[in-house]
């Protein structure tokens, strides 16, 4: 027969327990808090013991060493390399360490990355064969290559020689192609000045307007020096009114011929007229000059081109107001002019 549970006694025992707890609540609270704090301290101790910082090591100095040797030396110190490539001033240090960060001797934690700047060698390792190339382009290219670096190749003032070849073309060089650039060199070029003995007949521009002139310039072998004056009564606006005359029918190529254009007073037929003027270095031969125009909508196109031997360069124009004219010599913009 199952024993009958006395709920009255259980109820009494429960209330006696609650009463005892309430009487000793301060002691119990202190015990619970102490246990919690001890648990926190124990966890923190275990955590920091587990994630204790890596051992500190001294960074080796690897500047001047090969990349392979530098990486092996860093790994022996439990350090790792991060590689950056850079051209250098010397031709024989390809693959060597130029710089490092942190510096050698610094104390750092193990497993840290050390930035290594590795040489790609010189931007130019040997003298190229420049014969047949345009002198101005070669000079610009070499200046650009060594911008901000030790100049391993210097271009001396060239020697100009008449030839059947195009003016400005390199005929010879005094340092053989393939010469290794272990130290700075200076190259002397012999450059074609063109067929200076050729002669040409001067085109008569009197009465021709600006539109006709800019179409004739690319085929002309004389250099027209344009000036502008306001058109007088009886003169054709926007056309050549006076041109310099010569006793001979033929003159040497790229002889300078002065011309005066009668400019309209203000805008004519929606176009603004004027003379684009720029002073450039005197040259021993005529170089290609190109004029581009950028209209107010930002569209760029070639306006005209011609050959010129430097000094005062003049170009007549008749374009929309707000356009920009750009003068380009040897693929480089040398002057800009905004048309009012």
Give the structure's gist in a few sentences.
The protein is of the alpha+beta class. It contains 5 helices and 21 strands.
What is the average per-residue confidence, as pLDDT, rounded to a whole number?
85
The overall strand count is 21
Number of helices: 5
The fraction of residues in strands falls at 35-45%
Structural class: alpha+beta
Amount of helix: 10-25%
Q: Provide the spatial order of strands within the biggest beta sheet.
A: 18-17-20-21
Largest sheet data: 4 strands, antiparallel
Order of helices and strands: HHEHEEEEHEEEEEEHEEEEEEEEEE
In the predicted model, the low-confidence regions spanning at least 5 consecutive residues are none
The shape is elongated
N-to-C span: 121 Å
Rg computed from alpha carbons, rounded to a whole number of angstroms: 42 Å
What does this structure look like?
This protein is of the alpha+beta class and 340 residues long. Helix content is 21%, strand content 36%. It contains 5 helices and 21 strands. It has a 4-stranded antiparallel β-sheet, with no helix packed on it. Strands 2-5-3 form a 3-stranded mixed β-sheet. Strands 7-10-8 form a 3-stranded mixed β-sheet, with no helix packed on it. β17 (287-294) and β18 (300-308) form a beta hairpin. The model has no long low-confidence stretch (mean pLDDT 85).
Spell out the blueprint of helices and strands.
Blueprint (H helix, E strand, L loop, with lengths): L6 H17 L1 H26 L5 E3 L8 H10 L3 E9 L8 E5 L5 E3 L3 E10 L12 H11 L7 E3 L3 E3 L8 E4 L11 E3 L1 E4 L6 E3 L8 H7 L6 E8 L8 E5 L6 E3 L3 E8 L8 E9 L6 E8 L5 E9 L2 E9 L4 E6 L2 E7 L2
Parallel strand pairs: 2-5, 6-9, 7-10, 12-15
Antiparallel strand pairs: 1-4, 3-5, 8-10, 11-14, 13-15, 16-19, 17-18, 17-20, 20-21
């Amino acid at each position: 027969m199952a024993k009958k549970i006395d709920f009255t006694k259980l109820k009494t025992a429960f209330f006696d327990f609650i009463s005892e707890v309430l009487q000793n609540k301060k002691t119990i609270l202190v015990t619970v808090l102490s246990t919690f704090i001890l648990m926190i301290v124990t966890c923190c101790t275990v955590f920091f013991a587990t994630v204790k910082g890596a051992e500190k090591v001294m960074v080796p100095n690897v500047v001047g060493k090969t990349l392979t040797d530098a990486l092996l030396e860093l790994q022996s110190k439990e350090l790792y390399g991060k590689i950056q490539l850079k051209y250098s001033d010397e031709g024989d240090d390809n693959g060597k360490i130029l710089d490092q960060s942190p510096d050698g001797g610094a104390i750092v934690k193990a497993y840290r990355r050390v930035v290594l700047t590795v040489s790609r060698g010189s931007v130019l390792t040997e003298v190229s064969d420049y014969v047949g190339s345009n002198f101005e382009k070669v000079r610009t290219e070499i200046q650009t290559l060594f911008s901000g670096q030790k100049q391993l190749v210097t271009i001396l003032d060239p020697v100009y020689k008449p030839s059947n070849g195009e003016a400005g073309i390199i005929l010879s060089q005094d340092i053989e192609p393939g010469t290794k650039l272990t130290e700075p060199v200076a190259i002397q070029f012999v450059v074609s000045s063109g067929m200076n003995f050729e002669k040409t007949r001067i085109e008569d521009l009197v009465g021709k307007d600006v539109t006709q002139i800019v179409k004739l310039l690319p085929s002309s072998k004389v250099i027209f020096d344009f000036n502008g004056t306001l058109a007088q009564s009886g003169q054709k606006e926007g056309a050549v009114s006076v041109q310099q005359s010569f006793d001979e029918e033929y003159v040497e190529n790229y002889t300078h011929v002065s011309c005066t254009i009668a400019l309209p007073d203000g805008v004519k037929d929606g176009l603004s007229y004027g003379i684009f003027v720029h002073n450039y270095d005197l040259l021993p031969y005529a170089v290609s000059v190109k004029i581009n125009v950028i209209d107010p909508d930002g569209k760029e196109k070639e306006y005209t081109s011609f050959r010129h031997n430097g000094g005062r360069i003049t170009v007549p124009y008749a374009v929309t107001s707000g356009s920009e004219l750009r003068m380009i010599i040897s693929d480089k913009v040398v002057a800009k002019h905004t048309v009012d």
